[in-house]
Amino acid sequence: MWAVRADDRDPRPWIAGAVVCPALARREIRHTGVGRMKLPFEIVRTKLGGSYFLACFGGEGRVLVDGRWTRCSPGEAFLLPPGTLHAFRGTGREGWDHCWVRYQEAAGHAPLAAAQTPVLAEFDPEPLKSAILGLYHEARGAAHPAAIDHWCDLVHLYVLRFAQPATMDGRVLRLWELVAADLARAWSATDLAAEAHLGEKQLQRLCVRHLGRTPHQHLIWLRMRRAAELLADGAKVGAAAARVGYQNPFVFSSTFKRVIGCSPSEYPARKR
């Protein structure tokens, strides 16, 4: 593993030997690195505080997001939102080769992983991998400030390019902005397709391509994300459920726990 971190405050053994590079903090990056994970390998995070980007360049793994396991193969990447349950598991016989960037967005700053951000999409990992390794070697060697700043900017730029794809279909973008503003509505697949002026199958193909989720999965994620914000602000469970379109509190609670990783009643304390 070749890892770089913004400071040395994290005492966990796996990152204790990472090179310290304070310049990462100016990009809200907590740590980044390149690693080959031998089997058996699994990480579970129940309290992820910032956005997390992972790109695979060898082997194969599985990522748990939105309560479902999804394959991550070479040439694919994930960008996972903060505040939800995440897990990673190596599955390939030769292990799992990937690079990652862990963000820690400052209070009041919008997370990198937002409503229109892809979850899973195609991604060429080689430029990012090279930038991370360049930063690692510079930070542990000459540590020239200008060179370090350039490497940090490149690392952030490659993740940002994935997070804000210029090629996203405008109809998909406008649809989810509309849905996010009216989550209490009983959205059906037909409604979503009609608002986007697309056929249902065409909308599904575009959402999977641009967001890594089907329309139904993305609707659930938007609802749970908004419900988490409401609960953190002091809303009662029933009121939060109704605000995001759930009349049955039991269905809401089970969905929330599957996506976020804890029950709605537990979430405010965990968030604090």
TrEMBL record:
The Gene Ontology terms for molecular function here are: DNA-binding transcription factor activity; sequence-specific DNA binding
Q: Which residues form the HTH araC/xylS-type domain?
A: 173-270
Which InterPro entries does the record cross-reference, listed alphabetically?
AraC-bd, AraC_XylS_family_regulators, Homeodomain-like_sf, HTH-like, HTH_AraC, HTH_AraC-typ_CS
PROSITE patterns (UniProt xref) = HTH_ARAC_FAMILY_1 (PS00041), HTH_ARAC_FAMILY_2 (PS01124)
Q: Which terms are listed as keywords in the entry?
A: Activator, DNA-binding, Transcription, Transcription regulation
Q: Which Pfam families match?
A: AraC_binding, HTH_18
Q: What is this protein called?
A: Transcriptional regulator, AraC family
Query: Which organism is the protein's source?
Result: Fimbriiglobus ruber
